[in-house]
Amino acid sequence: MHILRCYQDIWLTLPEALRDGRDASTNQTLDRIQRRMRENMPSFPDLLPNDPSRPALICPQSDQEITYAKLQDFVRAFDLGLPCPAQGRPRVAVMLPNGPSLALAVLAIANRYTMIPMARTVAPDQLRADVEAVEADAILMLEADVPKVQLDSVLTVFVVHPQPDLTFTVTPTRPPTTTPEATPDHNKADDVSVLLFTSGTSGKKKLVPITAYNLFAGAVFTMNSVSLTASSRCLNMMPLHHIGGMVRSLYAPMLAGGTTICCASFDPSLFWDVVEKHNPTWYYATPTMHQMILAESEHRRDALAQSQIQFIINAGGGLPATLALQLREVFQCTVLPSYGMTECAPIASPPTDYKLEREGTSGRPVGPDVAILDGASPPRRAAPGETGRICVRGFPVFPGYLTSEGINTDAFEEGGWFDTGDLGCLDQDGYLYITGRSKEVINRGGEIISPIEVENAILSAARDPTSILYGRITETLAFSAPHDVLQEVVGAVIVTPAGQTRPDLRQLHEALGERLHQPKWPALIVYMDEGVPKSNNKLQRIRLGQRLSLDTLTDAIPVAERHYEAKCPPQGSPLTLSIPQTSCQIHGSQAHSHIAEAAGSPDVVMRQSPVDGFLQAVFFNAQETKPTVSKLAQALRSQVHGYLIPSGVKCVDDPIPLDMHGYIDEKAVDEAIRNLNSSPGDSSSTEFRVRELFAQALNQSVDDITASTDFFAAGGDSLSAGRLISTLRREFDIRLSGDVLFIHSTVGDITTIIEEACAKNAAKEKTTEEDLPGCRETRSSTNPLVLLIQLIPMLVFFPLRVGMQWTIFVFVMGETARLFPPDDELFGRLLHIVLVGLASRLAIGIIAPVAAILFKWVVMGRYRAGLYPMWGSYHTRWWLTQKAIRVAGKGVFNYFDFTRMVYYRLMGAHIGRGVQIHEHASLGEYDLLHFEDNVVLENCIIRPFAAERNTSMLLAPIRIGARSAIGLRTVVAPGSTLPPNTCMGPNSSSWELGSADEANRTLNSSNIPTPHWIWSLLVIEPLTLVAGFAYRLPWLAGLIPIVMHYPFQGTDMLRVIVFWFTNPSRIGWHILARIYYAVVGPILWFVAILLIKGLLDLTCGRSRPGPASKMSLRQKVRQAALFKMLPGGSLAPLTRLIGKHYELVSITIRLLGGRAGKRIYWPSVGPGIQDFDLVEVGNDVVFGSRSHLVTSDGSGRERVIISDGAMLGDRAVVLPGVTVGEMAMVGSGSLLRRNGFYPPDTVWTGSKNGNAIQFPTITTHADKEKQALSSSSSSSSSSGEDEKKQPRDTTRPFGRAFYQGMANFFVIGIPGIVIYSTLMVIISTVWRLLGVLSGLLVLAHALRQDHYAFAREWWQPFSVYGLFCAVVSAVSFAQTLIGVAVVISTKWLVMGRRTEGAYHWDRSSYNQRWQFFLTVETLIKDSYRGIGVLPMLSGTAYLNLYYRLMGASIGKDCALLANGDPNILLTEPDMVTLGDRVAVDDASLVCHLNTRGEFELHPLVVGDRSILRTGSRLMSASSMGKDACLLEHTLVLSGDYVDDGCTMQGWPAEPFDGKRV
């Protein structure tokens, strides 16, 4: 460092001619010296002090620090294993959030590779383009960002895993294909350490290479310029992916041995927290940041009094003199302007004793040689005070722009000068003043904005038929407009074609919302009808704001007053030529007639809104006509300019007030408006205070702010939003995220958030980790012994069951053929093989559950209540027992109610008399279940098991009192004690006992009237057998070729039967018979049901609504028979063939008696329908999975009506008599009460006290436009009383894409869907046969070898059984591996990596591809007797590995599907991020939103040690902090966040303050 300082000092004193390179000998000497300096430059780690106690980096959020010793070791050891290229260094992009991790990555990667910082906020497409432009070899990013960018196929992606000690580890997303022979050592002086982009004003960004020596020199000069020492502490809130942040805030402090406090982002409140706690001595920030810090200081006097800040450095724009003086006055320290750029940092800075005596200066040169050159050739230095081009040379100026051909030095002029592109002058004392910007970039408060990016976004919107700007803009030009605080903002010149109306700022912002980040939106518009300023066909952006003589914008200027019109100057006009402009006039008279016509009401008075300056339409006599802003906007868009469209509408029922002369009484009109704006009691005290704060931030009257006022629509921007958030934090003493106002921008939304936060603060007691339940000691999910044990169900249990069934089959068939030889009749042979098959199934139905019962008692004994660490000894035994029970099934014990009671009692459950348990009820941990007399359990979940914090297993007893009833889909939590006569309705939980009511008892299916058992025996069971026989008829037909030739008699019938069965042709017929069964069987079954139903309708009559007491015997028989044949109304066997979502499903519903409209989106699972005759579903209805349409209960039967365009969310329960109105939306897990009416266009969700909760109706912009169009058309067509009302268009994206041909991609039709669905059914059927057939073939081979083990002795059955099991075990496990590989490969080939966004059916092929993938996924879902591969691996590290391979980000030792009996799996794993030791029971982590058929994907995040219990759901875009818990039956709404350590319960979720254990 000392050598560099000496060299630079000496070089700057040399004569100008020598520095210009005109003397050859001097040039050689200088080159030799510089070469020696570069050769002797030590590596970066060697420049750092090796001090284990001195902090180098501090994280203020966690109060962790990295010492210099740790930093030195980390940087030295950091190696990504990338091979050395032939030239240069491997290029590594870094896309990390600001903070210690990014700081550490910059230092470590720039030491060994070429580091390329990337902003995380950049769009994925732009990121890919940037990565390709820099030819990056690898990129580092967080796991959460990997699915967003999808770069795995382009380059090596390293996932960064932050560690508690602030360091991080990295893992590649895909393993390296080769091991590099050599990896690079630390960078030498001439190696490119950092590669940066310029701002790209010419349309193409340039690449700026920063060598290791440039970086070193820049840091040294910065350190010298502000006299940094080991005691200096930098508070950094600047982004570290810019040169200023890297050199000033990171490298310079490190070389000085000081400390950098790395903040994740800028937050003025956090700034003062850091000042108070960590004692920084200086900071570096932009003018905008200074403004907000000063504003916050007024409320942080204590922190200011403790401040040890000695100097402040300004960056990112000119420092206004008033702001500099204010900074010095508040902080009582030195304030230093500065100047630098990507190509050279630093350039200038004042001395440390600077007193602000030279207004406007950027300081004196602090490193390079700086000159003001004129425009002559060759250029000459300008005299002091004379303006010219600011040029630099010498260290640390970059070597030249990087191109595909290498370093290009064309940017350097004669004498080695580099033109910065800025204009300025030097005074007599060498102080630099920047007088203008020759560059075209827009420097908005330190944020550099490319005008080309803005222009491209505007023109793109103008070409988009769905955009509000479509066809309304032919040319545009973005330029820099002056702003009083931000220095510069974006202005836009717009050219509108003849005959089109001008779009205003509101319409422009609406169109740019999905295309540009909000700070890049234009803040003013200039209309030029003849074109935009050009010279030689190049846009003239430079100095356009000055040429237009635009006044400096302030936040107080209303939006309406930011519209101007001007005449375009002739092409080639000099930049000094002024362009006259005038403000666009906004008068009510210009639009009055159009507004009156559009609204159909002449009684309208125009006012100008004081909020935004736009027109405000006040309608009188508005009892019937209630115009809205959206309707007017739609009607007026093609008639008047955008700035003439009212921003507000007021409706007064009274007539227009007139004065005594018949003119409008203006004062009376104003009084009427004031009365509308403020009425007593219209808002809470919280809301009124929020309105006041909004008004202050917007510089408006509180009377003009209502609950629906949108902050940004009313003129707010990001700067004022930051101020408002800071004020709200102080006012209500709550925590608010920095982006809350951008997500929830209305007064009403913010009020709700604040009230919830205040309520939490009031009720919340501080809890420590010790207060939270969960085991303190944990076990590892990757313990080798545990991993081996977890393969037992696949390798042992399943083969034992299958082997037993087939061993019984071959021996029984052989022995019965020997003892009772079948006759020569074909029917006798067929009957023989069928009866043997039934006998083997009956035998295994007895043996398997009995074996599972014995296994449970031997391995577990009695279940013991307590908390146990997962993957410990007790949990492993529980897991193994649960899998044994699952594989075995209930068998014959599930045939009747009394046999189920026997089974549960044998398992250890305490069950009283008269207990009724639904066959599909989910029970477990039986010793801990206590059911008293006459308890009734519907299809519910009652498990004493639950996951607990820190991957713990909770076992707690459940007691249900006598005569209690548990409703459909209700969850009883571990540890629950329900008193006698507790009647819980559907979709509830034991945490919600307050909603239990005796009226719920009649809702249970057990109370539905049934006929006498004799009718079941004589009618119902025979009809069920007929339907079952029809299903199996194709299989029986397929058996005929098999039994055409029957085995002959022999001494060893086992050999005879096996050899006979394994004949190749017979195996082929067996496979074909099973295919017949899978493909033709469901069709014949459905036909049989139609015939049986038709017969029952003819003899018993169709279902009709009515009370249960009046139901006739014939109706009871009919109802019971259909319930038996179609349990839950499931058509799954048929829909697997014909597609689950499409018109063929609607046809089957109609054939069964239901009323189904057009374009219905049916779900993948369900809906469960009791009686099709009582269900009416309108057009364009969208169903979610696993919903239930209940038409019958103990009170009687009623119709269920779902009207046009409605949506029924997943897991909703609709009780008898419900009517869902047109376009109503019923959310996930809703419970619709009996005989309830849910009006059109309403929104409902949840389940509280036996009914759903109505939410405020949220109308999307697209819906508003459609409603406006619909209203307009209906208005214009309803002049005559006899005219019919136009039907409402309820078509959703699914219908538009699939039935109306309006998709922008190829849509596979119903024939194609039927073909690939049927093909997958065939493949899956054959796939499941392979294990058994392999066992038979191997057995035949072994018998032919005459092994003694298979001799006709007493051990022969055991030998056959053992061989069968071994072969089935090997084959089924191999099938598992292959099936999983096929599914994973299909996912990546068909789906790719999912990213957040909208994927509506008519705009994206995503849903179509997803449906195909789900069809392929049945390959592993149907395995293991329909249990599926993934449930067999529940709670294991194998399942975590599977989901990681599917793209999920899963931490260490997570337990997924922990209870072992899941109903739903991760549907979008690559959108899910789970921390360490997260436990998920049978809960939903679903990342998609299907809102009336509009499909969106959003990520989910769950923090460390958090848990989701059975029946809970984390909706798309929501997240959980660390140690959080969702109890049973809990819904976290989309976008919500569960705080660290918080327990939530309810649907929707609310904080839970009780004890969960």
UniProtKB/TrEMBL annotation:
Transmembrane segments: 833-855, 1013-1031, 1075-1096, 1297-1319, 1358-1384
Region (Disordered): 357-385, 1263-1291
Compositionally biased spans, kind Basic and acidic residues: 1281-1291
Keywords on record: Membrane, Phosphopantetheine, Phosphoprotein, Transmembrane, Transmembrane helix
Annotated Pfam families: AMP-binding (PF00501), PP-binding (PF00550)
Record-linked Gene3D superfamilies: 3.30.300.30, ACP-like, Hexapeptide repeat proteins, N-terminal domain of ligase-like
Sequence ranges of Low complexity compositional bias: 1270-1279
Presence of the UniProt keyword Phosphoprotein in the record: yes
Domain Carrier: 684-758
SUPFAM superfamilies membership: Acetyl-CoA synthetase-like, ACP-like, Trimeric LpxA-like enzymes
Record PANTHER family: ACYL-COA SYNTHETASE (PTHR43201), CARRIER DOMAIN-CONTAINING PROTEIN (PTHR43201:SF10)
The protein's name in its UniProt record: Carrier domain-containing protein
Organism from which the protein derives: Aspergillus pseudoustus
